[in-house]
Amino acid sequence: MELLPANLGSALDIGARDGFISMLLAERYAAITALDLEKPQINHEKIACVAGDITGLNFPNGSFDLVFCAEVLEHIPTHLLTKACEELVRVSKKYLVIGVPFRQDIRVGRTTCAACGKVNPPWGHVNSFDEQRLNKLFHACHSLKTAFVGSNNSQTNWLSSLLMDLAGNPYGTYEQEEPCVNCCAHLIPPPERDLVKKLFTKAAVFAQQATQPFVKDHPNWIHILFEKRLA
Protein backbone atom coordinates (compact mmCIF):
# COMPACT_ATOMS: atom_id res chain seq x y z
CA MET A 1 0.00 0.00 0.00
CA GLU A 2 2.93 2.35 0.63
CA LEU A 3 3.79 2.17 -3.07
CA LEU A 4 0.41 3.54 -4.18
CA PRO A 5 0.40 7.03 -5.70
CA ALA A 6 -1.94 9.58 -4.15
CA ASN A 7 -4.68 11.68 -5.73
CA LEU A 8 -5.81 9.25 -8.42
CA GLY A 9 -9.38 8.65 -9.55
CA SER A 10 -9.68 5.04 -10.73
CA ALA A 11 -7.96 1.70 -10.19
CA LEU A 12 -8.24 -1.81 -11.58
CA ASP A 13 -7.59 -4.71 -9.20
CA ILE A 14 -6.56 -7.80 -11.17
CA GLY A 15 -7.23 -11.12 -9.42
CA ALA A 16 -9.52 -9.51 -6.84
CA ARG A 17 -10.81 -12.75 -5.25
CA ASP A 18 -12.54 -11.83 -1.96
CA GLY A 19 -11.97 -8.11 -2.48
CA PHE A 20 -9.44 -7.49 0.30
CA ILE A 21 -7.17 -5.35 -1.89
CA SER A 22 -10.10 -3.78 -3.75
CA MET A 23 -11.52 -2.46 -0.46
CA LEU A 24 -8.14 -1.05 0.53
CA LEU A 25 -7.93 0.69 -2.83
CA ALA A 26 -11.45 2.05 -2.29
CA GLU A 27 -10.20 3.86 0.81
CA ARG A 28 -7.87 5.88 -1.43
CA TYR A 29 -9.54 6.18 -4.83
CA ALA A 30 -13.01 7.10 -6.09
CA ALA A 31 -13.74 4.17 -8.39
CA ILE A 32 -12.41 0.61 -8.26
CA THR A 33 -12.95 -2.20 -10.76
CA ALA A 34 -12.43 -5.65 -9.23
CA LEU A 35 -11.66 -8.31 -11.86
CA ASP A 36 -11.19 -12.05 -11.65
CA LEU A 37 -11.82 -15.06 -13.90
CA GLU A 38 -15.12 -15.47 -12.07
CA LYS A 39 -16.99 -12.29 -11.18
CA PRO A 40 -16.08 -11.30 -7.61
CA GLN A 41 -18.82 -10.74 -5.06
CA ILE A 42 -17.88 -7.53 -3.26
CA ASN A 43 -20.54 -5.31 -1.74
CA HIS A 44 -19.09 -1.80 -1.78
CA GLU A 45 -20.45 1.37 -3.34
CA LYS A 46 -17.10 2.29 -4.92
CA ILE A 47 -16.34 -1.15 -6.35
CA ALA A 48 -17.62 -2.54 -9.65
CA CYS A 49 -17.11 -6.30 -10.07
CA VAL A 50 -16.43 -7.91 -13.44
CA ALA A 51 -15.29 -11.24 -14.85
CA GLY A 52 -12.33 -11.11 -17.21
CA ASP A 53 -9.11 -12.60 -18.51
CA ILE A 54 -5.81 -10.81 -18.00
CA THR A 55 -4.62 -11.90 -21.46
CA GLY A 56 -7.53 -10.08 -23.14
CA LEU A 57 -8.91 -7.26 -20.99
CA ASN A 58 -12.20 -5.84 -22.23
CA PHE A 59 -11.34 -2.19 -21.53
CA PRO A 60 -10.21 0.67 -23.80
CA ASN A 61 -6.64 1.90 -23.75
CA GLY A 62 -5.79 3.98 -20.69
CA SER A 63 -8.99 3.17 -18.81
CA PHE A 64 -7.52 3.31 -15.30
CA ASP A 65 -5.19 5.68 -13.48
CA LEU A 66 -3.71 2.67 -11.68
CA VAL A 67 -3.59 -1.06 -12.45
CA PHE A 68 -2.88 -3.28 -9.44
CA CYS A 69 -1.81 -6.86 -10.11
CA ALA A 70 -0.39 -9.04 -7.32
CA GLU A 71 -0.23 -12.82 -6.90
CA VAL A 72 -1.37 -13.33 -10.50
CA LEU A 73 1.49 -13.32 -13.02
CA GLU A 74 3.17 -16.37 -11.47
CA HIS A 75 0.05 -18.37 -12.47
CA ILE A 76 -0.15 -17.24 -16.11
CA PRO A 77 0.94 -19.86 -18.69
CA THR A 78 4.41 -18.84 -19.80
CA HIS A 79 3.50 -18.54 -23.48
CA LEU A 80 0.81 -15.97 -22.52
CA LEU A 81 2.85 -14.01 -19.99
CA THR A 82 4.10 -11.31 -22.36
CA LYS A 83 0.58 -10.77 -23.68
CA ALA A 84 -0.80 -10.46 -20.15
CA CYS A 85 1.79 -7.83 -19.24
CA GLU A 86 1.10 -5.89 -22.44
CA GLU A 87 -2.60 -5.85 -21.57
CA LEU A 88 -1.88 -4.48 -18.10
CA VAL A 89 0.18 -1.67 -19.60
CA ARG A 90 -2.42 -0.98 -22.31
CA VAL A 91 -5.35 -0.37 -19.94
CA SER A 92 -3.28 1.73 -17.53
CA LYS A 93 -3.34 5.47 -17.99
CA LYS A 94 -0.19 6.05 -15.95
CA TYR A 95 0.68 3.68 -13.08
CA LEU A 96 0.95 -0.05 -12.37
CA VAL A 97 1.75 -1.91 -9.16
CA ILE A 98 3.02 -5.43 -9.82
CA GLY A 99 3.60 -8.03 -7.11
CA VAL A 100 5.08 -11.51 -7.59
CA PRO A 101 7.17 -14.07 -5.69
CA PHE A 102 10.85 -13.10 -5.86
CA ARG A 103 13.33 -15.61 -7.26
CA GLN A 104 11.10 -18.53 -6.29
CA ASP A 105 12.59 -21.95 -6.99
CA ILE A 106 9.46 -23.58 -8.39
CA ARG A 107 11.07 -27.01 -8.14
CA VAL A 108 10.55 -26.88 -4.37
CA GLY A 109 7.20 -28.30 -3.24
CA ARG A 110 6.23 -29.81 -6.57
CA THR A 111 3.26 -32.16 -6.71
CA THR A 112 2.39 -35.20 -8.82
CA CYS A 113 -1.18 -35.34 -10.13
CA ALA A 114 -2.99 -38.58 -9.28
CA ALA A 115 -5.22 -38.17 -12.34
CA CYS A 116 -2.70 -37.61 -15.13
CA GLY A 117 0.57 -38.54 -13.39
CA LYS A 118 2.30 -35.30 -14.41
CA VAL A 119 4.40 -33.03 -12.24
CA ASN A 120 3.08 -29.62 -11.12
CA PRO A 121 4.91 -26.58 -9.75
CA PRO A 122 3.96 -25.54 -6.20
CA TRP A 123 0.79 -23.46 -5.81
CA GLY A 124 0.35 -23.45 -9.57
CA HIS A 125 3.29 -21.05 -9.95
CA VAL A 126 4.57 -21.67 -13.45
CA ASN A 127 6.79 -18.55 -13.62
CA SER A 128 9.65 -17.25 -11.51
CA PHE A 129 10.66 -13.57 -11.40
CA ASP A 130 13.41 -11.18 -10.44
CA GLU A 131 13.77 -7.43 -11.01
CA GLN A 132 15.46 -7.90 -14.38
CA ARG A 133 12.67 -10.08 -15.76
CA LEU A 134 9.96 -7.73 -14.51
CA ASN A 135 11.66 -4.71 -16.06
CA LYS A 136 11.94 -6.57 -19.35
CA LEU A 137 8.27 -7.63 -19.29
CA PHE A 138 7.23 -4.04 -18.52
CA HIS A 139 9.73 -2.39 -20.84
CA ALA A 140 7.12 0.24 -21.80
CA CYS A 141 7.37 1.54 -18.22
CA HIS A 142 10.06 2.62 -15.82
CA SER A 143 10.13 1.60 -12.17
CA LEU A 144 9.59 4.32 -9.56
CA LYS A 145 9.69 2.33 -6.31
CA THR A 146 10.45 -1.23 -5.28
CA ALA A 147 9.50 -2.99 -2.05
CA PHE A 148 10.46 -6.44 -0.78
CA VAL A 149 8.50 -8.56 1.69
CA GLY A 150 9.59 -11.47 3.86
CA SER A 151 12.58 -13.80 3.59
CA ASN A 152 13.08 -17.18 1.94
CA ASN A 153 15.92 -19.65 1.42
CA SER A 154 13.95 -22.52 -0.13
CA GLN A 155 16.05 -23.91 -2.97
CA THR A 156 16.86 -27.32 -4.37
CA ASN A 157 18.97 -28.75 -7.19
CA TRP A 158 18.38 -30.83 -10.30
CA LEU A 159 19.36 -34.14 -8.70
CA SER A 160 17.12 -33.68 -5.67
CA SER A 161 14.25 -32.58 -7.94
CA LEU A 162 14.66 -35.65 -10.15
CA LEU A 163 14.75 -38.02 -7.18
CA MET A 164 11.71 -36.35 -5.60
CA ASP A 165 9.80 -36.71 -8.88
CA LEU A 166 10.67 -40.43 -8.90
CA ALA A 167 9.40 -40.63 -5.32
CA GLY A 168 6.05 -39.15 -6.38
CA ASN A 169 6.67 -35.75 -4.73
CA PRO A 170 5.30 -36.74 -1.30
CA TYR A 171 6.10 -33.33 0.24
CA GLY A 172 4.33 -31.24 -2.38
CA THR A 173 1.81 -28.44 -1.79
CA TYR A 174 -1.24 -30.71 -1.99
CA GLU A 175 -3.23 -28.36 0.25
CA GLN A 176 -3.35 -25.77 -2.54
CA GLU A 177 -6.64 -24.72 -4.15
CA GLU A 178 -5.07 -24.54 -7.61
CA PRO A 179 -5.75 -27.64 -9.74
CA CYS A 180 -3.28 -29.59 -11.85
CA VAL A 181 -1.82 -27.28 -14.49
CA ASN A 182 -1.85 -30.15 -16.97
CA CYS A 183 -5.33 -31.69 -16.67
CA CYS A 184 -7.12 -29.36 -14.18
CA ALA A 185 -7.89 -32.21 -11.77
CA HIS A 186 -7.96 -31.57 -8.02
CA LEU A 187 -4.60 -32.44 -6.48
CA ILE A 188 -4.60 -35.04 -3.72
CA PRO A 189 -1.70 -36.39 -1.63
CA PRO A 190 -0.04 -39.54 -3.00
CA PRO A 191 -0.81 -42.95 -1.45
CA GLU A 192 1.50 -44.68 1.00
CA ARG A 193 4.94 -45.00 -0.59
CA ASP A 194 6.56 -48.34 -1.24
CA LEU A 195 10.15 -49.06 -0.24
CA VAL A 196 11.63 -47.88 -3.54
CA LYS A 197 9.88 -44.52 -3.35
CA LYS A 198 10.91 -44.12 0.27
CA LEU A 199 14.52 -44.65 -0.78
CA PHE A 200 14.15 -42.08 -3.57
CA THR A 201 12.69 -39.65 -1.04
CA LYS A 202 15.56 -40.10 1.41
CA ALA A 203 18.13 -39.71 -1.36
CA ALA A 204 16.37 -36.54 -2.56
CA VAL A 205 16.51 -35.06 0.93
CA PHE A 206 20.23 -35.83 1.25
CA ALA A 207 20.91 -34.31 -2.19
CA GLN A 208 19.05 -31.13 -1.23
CA GLN A 209 20.81 -30.86 2.12
CA ALA A 210 24.20 -31.09 0.40
CA THR A 211 23.71 -27.74 -1.35
CA GLN A 212 21.54 -25.96 1.24
CA PRO A 213 24.50 -24.44 3.16
CA PHE A 214 25.42 -22.49 0.01
CA VAL A 215 21.94 -20.97 -0.38
CA LYS A 216 21.53 -17.33 0.64
CA ASP A 217 18.35 -15.80 1.99
CA HIS A 218 16.41 -13.61 -0.39
CA PRO A 219 13.11 -11.68 -0.18
CA ASN A 220 9.93 -13.70 -0.52
CA TRP A 221 7.97 -11.15 -2.57
CA ILE A 222 8.73 -8.14 -4.75
CA HIS A 223 6.35 -5.28 -5.51
CA ILE A 224 7.20 -2.58 -8.05
CA LEU A 225 5.45 0.70 -8.84
CA PHE A 226 5.79 1.30 -12.57
CA GLU A 227 5.01 4.45 -14.53
CA LYS A 228 4.25 4.31 -18.25
CA ARG A 229 6.81 5.97 -20.44
CA LEU A 230 5.66 8.93 -22.48
CA ALA A 231 4.79 7.93 -26.05
Could you list the spans in which at least 5 consecutive residues all have pLDDT below 50? none
Shape: elongated
Structural class: alpha/beta
Beta fraction = 15-25%
Q: How many structural units, i.e. domains?
A: 1
CATH class: Alpha Beta
Please, what is the CATH homologous superfamily?
Answer: Vaccinia Virus protein VP39
CATH topology: Rossmann fold
Q: How would you spell out the order of helices and strands?
A: EHEEEHEEEHEHHE
**Strand line-up in the sheet with most strands:** 3-2-1-4-5-9-8
Overall pLDDT confidence = 96
The percent range for helix content is 10-25%
Give the beta-strand count.
9
Largest sheet: 7 strands, mixed
CATH architectural designation? 3-Layer(aba) Sandwich
- Structural Rg: 20 Å
How widely separated are the two ends? 28 Å
Question: Can you count the helices?
Answer: 5
Describe the structure.
This protein has a single domain (10-228), classed as 3-Layer(aba) Sandwich (Rossmann fold), CATH 3.40.50.150. It has 231 residues and is α/β, with parallel strands linked by helices. It is 23% helix and 23% strand. The strands form two sheets. Strands 3-2-1-4-5-9-8 form a seven-stranded mixed beta sheet. Strands 6-7 form a two-stranded antiparallel sheet. Strand 1 (10-14), helix 1 (20-26) and strand 2 (31-36) form a beta-alpha-beta unit.
